Automatic annotation (TrEMBL):
InterPro entries noted in UniProt: NAD(P)-bd_dom_sf (IPR036291), PDH_N (IPR046826), Prephen_DH (IPR003099), TYRAAT1/2 (IPR045011), TYRAAT2_C (IPR059064)
Pfam family, one: TYRAAT1_C
Domain Prephenate/arogenate dehydrogenase: 12-275
Keywords: Coiled coil, Oxidoreductase
Coiled coil: 236-267
GO terms of molecular function: arogenate dehydrogenase (NADP+) activity; NAD+ binding; prephenate dehydrogenase (NAD+) activity; prephenate dehydrogenase (NADP+) activity
Protein name: Prephenate/arogenate dehydrogenase domain-containing protein
């Protein structure tokens, strides 16, 4: 298969699979930078794409046969395998950079390597921001990536430059290391937020700054779908241990409180008997 590089170092033809809120969010900046975009999705976004200057394909075969430099996977974590296995990947006309933007990394890497033809380049990425946090720009937000299988360095560099030029903090790390760190940060944050949601905490007339932080955490967590949260658990092998550690930590704190209460009650008992 012949190697074909993008038409210029700054302009890419990018096809997005999964044109939900996150795909649309990324597309706005890519369009602003002058890239040519195509999109395909289970939902018909043809009118939205038309207004944005994006070509929408309802036919997956036609989408794959289009002359894309990059195909960006922006599906949900839970639907990734089903979506990729339903694609007629044999229709890819030339070597293409296949990149994903999922919030877990080992899982999509393994699926991509299993499904894609060996000649396709693979880049696994995680933009550590979204439509809410990144609505005023991407500057100083982390962008994590691993060059899993890259032969066409020019196309890969041009794609990474999309995020670098917006001021992202570019972090190259393995998919395994990403998932280890994300389990201790992103998954733990989502878990605490979901627990607060189950408690149905609400703003009060005497909020402390700390309590206001908890309310914001709850609200930001439930703004993301439960599918995303469950995907962070199901498809990050390190998340299971974090949940067990969180349960153990809760029990340890509970035990310390009970122990202190018993100590105070023992101290008070002699004094009460003298009254």
């Amino acid at each position: 298969m012949a190697v074909s590089s993008p038409s210029s170092s700054s302009t890419l033809k990018i096809g997005i699979i999964g044109f939900g809120p996150f795909g649309q969010f990324l597309a706005k900046t890519m369009i602003k930078q002058g890239h040519i975009l195509r999109a395909t999705s289970r939902t018909d976004h043809s009118q939205l794409c038309h207004r944005s200057g994006i070509s929408f394909f309802s036919d997956k075969r036609a989408f794959l046969e289009a002359d894309n430099d990059v195909i960006l996977i922006s599906t949900s974590i839970l639907s990734l395998s089903e979506v990729l296995n339903s694609l007629p990947v044999h229709c890819l006309q030339r070597r293409t950079l296949i990149a994903d933007v999922l919030s877990v990394k080992e899982y999509p890497r393994n699926v991509l390597l299993q499904v894609l033809p060996e000649e396709m380049d693979v880049l696994c990425t995680h933009p550590m921001f979204g439509p809410e946090s990144g609505q005023n720009g991407w500057k100083d937000f982390a962008f994590v990536y691993e060059k899993v299988r890259i032969r066409d360095e020019a196309t890969c560099s041009s794609f990474l430059r999309i995020f670098e030029s917006e001021g992202c903090k570019m972090l190259e790390m393995s998919c395994e290391e990403h998932d280890k760190v994300a389990a201790k940060s992103q998954f733990l944050t989502h878990t605490i937020g979901r627990v607060l949601s189950e408690l149905e905490i609400q703003s009060t007339s005497m909020n402390t700054k700390g309590f206001e932080t908890l309310i914001r955490l709850k609200e930001s967590s439930v703004n993301d779908s439960f599918d995303l949260f469950s995907g962070l658990y199901i498809h990050n092998r390190f998340a299971k241990q974090e949940l067990l550690d969180l349960e153990a930590a809760f029990e340890k704190v509970k035990h310390k409180l009970q122990q202190k209460m018993e100590e105070v009650q023992l101290e008070q008992s002699p004094n009460e008997s003298k009254l």
